[in-house]
Amino acid sequence: MPNAYISGTGFFVPPKIVTNDDLSVYMNTTDSWIRERTGIIERRYVEKGVGPSDLAIPAANDALKAAGLSVKDIDFIIFATCTPDYYIPGSGCLLQEKMGFNEIGVLDIRVQCSGFVYGLSIADQYIKTGEFNNILLIGAEVQSTAMDLSDHGRDTAVIFGDGAGAAVISATSEKRGILSTHMHSEGKFLKELWVEAPASKQGRPRILPEHLDQGKQYLKMNGKEVFRHAILRFIEVINECLLANNLSIDDINMLIPHQANLRITQMIQKKLDLSDSQVFSNVHKYGNTTAASIPIALAEAINEGKIIKGDTVVFASFGSGFTWASSIMEW
Predict the structure, then answer these.
(1) Do residues 77 and 105 touch, judged by C-beta distance below 8 A?
(2) Phi, psi of 327 (to 5 degrees)
(3) Residues β-bridged to residue 6
(4) Are 34 and 318 in contact (CB under 8 A)?
């Protein structure tokens, strides 16, 4: 049975930088207020007409280059996003056409911030069964257009940004790669972090003028509840993957958590007694890019030489749903 490993990574963020001071033009906030609560200094926003499939192209090209592969070598595409270019079809089909892939299958998954780790789990199974040899996994988001840039949406709007990360998952006969993945959900908390409209259960039409007036098309978040649950689930799911592989905290060379909030990352680090060298964070530069945050951070960590062959790397995520997940691998 082959093992699945990450043979190449890449990322792309739009060139438009939006600072905390820029946001203060639209809402009653300050740079110090945002930094204190989130650790975020700036984020990236797309220009009008750019979707997650567009952001995914340069990220995918870099991942393919790093893996030494071309579009013709890819057997399957997994596209993780909660902000697709269109309601129908998924962004995977758009990426397939734009990049000229063969008529391969595409799978769009929507588990928000956990999208990349869930995607790793899917890719791992396809590789280990011998179904595919090379899978392109994308995490890409355009969150900026889902933000209410006003005082009413301030607590959420300051957190999120746009970007894309990509990884090529390949088969190998070496004893390396993905050791295990672990996925969970708890749907009773769906309204703590959600977009209420448009909704198919609304009937015709799926969104009404009064919904727009009430701001139901914007992302809403109960920050205190999300923070509380995130700390608990992050720690649980990190320990779960270590236990499953008879490893300890000391065995972790690099933890890459979903880049939700610097305070969350710092709390996890403190509770698990991890050193600064064991945890990677770039939320200060890009904000929360949801499904894109882990692959962006992974690509940066590799580019900076912070992950080398033989390292034990852990990914962990928590987000809307609630969903949470982890994956552990030998690099």
Answers:
(1) yes
(2) -145, 145
(3) 169
(4) no
Would you call 11 exposed, middle or buried from its count of C-beta atoms within 10 A (0-12, 13-18, 19+)? buried
Q: Which residues are CB-neighbours of 24 under 8 A, at least 6 positions away?
A: 30, 31
- Determine which one of 229, 241, 258, 261 is catalytic: 258
| Chain position carrying tokens 């740079």 | 31
Residue by residue, what is the 3-state secondary structure of 139-157? EEECCHHHCCCCHHHHHHH
Q: Per residue in 242-268, pLDDT tens? A: 999 999 999 999 999 999 999 999 999
Helices and strands (H, E) in the chain, number of each type: 11, 13
Nearest Cα residue to 236 out of 194, 278, 184, 275 = 184
- From 113, 133, 182, 282, the catalytic residue: 113
Per the structure block, which two tokens stand in for 54? 């567009």
Residue 113 known to be catalytic? yes
Nearest-angstrom CA–CA distance, 294 and 315 = 7
Characterize the bridge pairing of strands 163-172 and 3-12: antiparallel
Which DSSP category does 161 fall into?
Answer: -
Which of 3, 134, 261, 288 is flagged as catalytic? 288
pLDDT recorded at residue 55: 98
pLDDT for 1? 87
> Taking the chain, what is the end-to-end CA distance rounded to the nearest angstrom?
18
Q: Give the chain's length.
A: 331
Q: What is the mean pLDDT of the chain?
A: 96
Judge whether 239 counts as a catalytic residue: no
Distance CA 315, CA 257 (A): 6
Beta bridge partners of 8: 168
Per-residue pLDDT of 308-317, as tens digits, reads 999 999 999 9
